[in-house]
Every structure is written in structure tokens, then in C-alpha cells.
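User: Sequence for Oxidoreductase below. C-alpha cells please.
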Amino acid sequence: MAGIREESGQRGGRLAGRVALVTGASRGIGAAVARCFAAEGAHCVLVARTVGALEEVDDQVRALGGSATLVPLDLREFDKIDQMGAALYERFGRLDILVGNAGHLGSLGPMSHQDPKVFQQVIETNLLANWRLIRAMEPLLKLAPAGRALFTGCAAGREPIAYWSAYAVSKAALEMMVHVWAAELTKTNVRVGLVDPGPVATKLRRTAFPGEDQAIMAQPDEIASLFLDRVLV
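Assistant: C-alpha cells for Oxidoreductase:
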């Protein structure tokens, strides 16, 4: 499988022996979840577009005694998601945990003023890429003793807020897609859910609310346990 650097790490912890795929893993919530899972013994497959940022997270994971495989990938290259699924099967034979966290804010403003290319990018990243992950990873999750899939939700997808445009649309569709998929898997060993961490100090949040003081907000590492709690159930 395409990877920059792999290291063997600790075997103990509540996620010892599990393989966890995390998207949007180069910063913010995704990086925090990666550190949290790695500290609990999971081997993390970290997906993001930026090689340098992934390597920084890998250094942090290794400092915690964990291990990772780095996959530099733009999730809008949908065929490569399928290739990643095949490579995971060849390498690990299963996938224990999927965290669909990657997100794109796009442009905030009136719905009728949106640039079509930007609108499409948001839908592709926040919705269609996650559908392709579902399509590619469901068979691998079913091969795990207790497959778990989590996606990062947002209040913008559940209540209409003016000017949130493509982001709100994509999050609303994502949440319904996840609920439908969860209903389909009730008789399997796979459990699927959404995690809405609320306001968190991330780059996306800073872009949307440039006037906020992020120093007094919840930090990504402080909310990573929300994801851990859900995969341990």
C-alpha cells in the first residue's frame, strides 16, 4: 500500500491490534484522533493531502509509542479510495475502525451566489468521498470482529443557517447517509455513527469565525476521547 513511513509501535492499550483509518488526519480533529487511537495501541492508517503535515503527525504518533501508515491522498480522487481498500485487505485482511473526518468549508455566502466549482468541491469532499469510503470499506469492516465507523457531524447539517451554503447541504446529506447505512448494518458486527464535537479550535472553524478567540475553545485533543468512547462500545 502507498505509504511514506511505517514504524512498529506498542502493542498494549484498549485498541491493541486494531487497524484504524482516519481521514483528514494531518491536522485538527483528525490528527488528534490519530494520536488518541495510537496511544491506545491501534495501528493508524492516516489519510490527508499534505505529505509534510502527515509526517509531523507520524512523528507525534511514534513519540506516543504508536505506529502508522501514511497515505497522501486527495479524497476527491475516488478511484484511489477503491485502490486503498484493496491494499488494506491485502495488507491487514480487515479494517477495524473507519473515521471519516476530512472536511472542506468552501465559500460562505448566499446560496445563489456560490461558485459552481467550489460548491462541487465541498459536496465531493464532505459527501461523495465518504460514500466512496463506505462502498470500499464496508467489506473490510465486516471482516473485523467488531467493525466501527464514525463520521464527524456538525450542527450546520441539522438546522438551517443562512449563508452556510454547500457546507450545510453536504453535512445534512452526510448525516442522513450515515443513518441509512447504520440501519442497513443492524444485523451485522459493524456499528456506524456520527460524532458532533461541537465548537472546536480548528482551521476550518477559524476560517468560518475569524473573530473567535480559539484559545478559550475546546482543543482537538480534548475532544478526541469522544471518538474513542464510541469505538470501544
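The chain has one domain: 19-232.
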